[in-house]
Amino acid sequence: MMPGITACERCPLGRASRPCPFLPRRFAAGDTIHGEDATAESVRFVKRGTVLLVRSTRSGNDVVRDVVHPGSLIGVEALVRPRYADAARAMTAATLCEVSTDRLREWLGSEGSPAHVVMTMLASSVPAPRSAGSDGNAVSRTATWILEHDSQELPRRVIAALLGIAPETLSRAIASLKLRGAIAATRNRIAILDRPLLERLATITRRDPRQEQEPDERIA
Question: pTM for the full model?
Answer without folding.
Answer: 0.66
